[in-house]
Amino acid sequence: MAYEKPQLSSWEKATLVTAILRTLSTGLYTSVVAPFRGSSGSAKYLDHVKLAMVRTLMDNTTTRHQQAITPSLDEAYAAYAKRQGFTPESLTLPDGTKAHWIGSKSAEKVVIWFHGGGYNLPPDAGHLPFASEIVSAAGPNLSVLMLSYTLAPHAVYPTQLRQAVELLRYTITDLERKPENVAIGGDSAGGNLAAGVLAHMLHPHPDLKPLDVGGKLGGAILLAPWASFATHWPSSKKNANKDLVTVYCSDKWSQAFLGGQKGDGYSEPLVAEEGWWNGLEDVVREILVCGGADELLADVIREFGKRLGAVHSKLILFIAEGEWHDKPTLQVMGAGGQQSDAIKSFVKSRL
């Protein structure tokens, strides 16, 4: 396990119950007023109600609550393998960090995936099924390798970046995969992390060992990349009642991840200096950047895609109308959708 699960005190358990009651109350209230939501809410009635409930639960629970009640990736992977009837296969990096295989560990092609959760939360129940969908779409010659990085506040930046870089290094050197047969990807904070790995390949982080994979990576997939921790973007206000993430949570999670440090080109891609992404075509063949039009990060994703597209001719920017943050991985919200289809198509055709 990448961190020790918190043991909640009696008081924390009581406040968790209160948060759940508030969430149920929100669901009841929203179900009554939702027909009058107009264009400020989600297009579909049930989606609007569920998103309001998720926001309430997230805003009224602490990171300790959320880590205590949600299985870690290591726990979730073991349970998922049992339910699906396959033998779990994992690897352990020299520093003890684990990564878990979805698909055959001997597959020629590998998508290294970094899960989202604001660097503070374990993956959603839909992350592993989403990885399985990628494998099913691409065929038996491709696997997904999901990194179990250490969550904040148990570790802060650049720990997660170091773990991600070392998994890519291990995949190329120890597992002997060709760089053109390897893609990196991630959702939300994981998209931030994938961008950080690309930045490290261009400009080695002063606290990390440089990484030269000996060629271009086959691709990069940035799903709803958390490229800016600022909340002044117009979509942060416009989509406040359409998304499941809130400004309050974003601020809390980014502060825990940075641990008092300022964002830089590795940890917060949109604060990078001009020219930072020059040379991107030399490290990765093709890039997919995607997000939902109804998420707080919609403007961030558009701007990040625009900046990367200015230096990489083979970049696809896709914004799905009517979709919220990280929809492909969120089981409680139905997962799937246009972004999910775009990612599966990208992997199948590019690797």
What would you note in describing this structure?
The protein is α/β, with parallel strands linked by helices and 351 residues long. Helix content is 40%, strand content 13%. It has 11 helices and 8 strands. It has an 8-stranded mixed sheet with strand order 1-2-4-3-5-6-7-8, sandwiched between helices. Helix 1 (10-33) packs antiparallel against helix 2 (45-60), helix 5 crosses helix 11 and helix 6 (159-173) packs across helix 7 (189-202). The model has no long low-confidence stretch (mean pLDDT 96).
TL;DR of this structure?
With about 350 residues, this protein is α/β, with parallel strands linked by helices. It has helices spanning about 10-35, 45-60, 65-70, 75-85, 125-140, 160-175, 190-200, 235-240, 245-260, 300-310, 340-350, and strands spanning about 90, 100, 110-115, 140-150, 180-185, 220-225, 285-290, 315-320. It is globular.
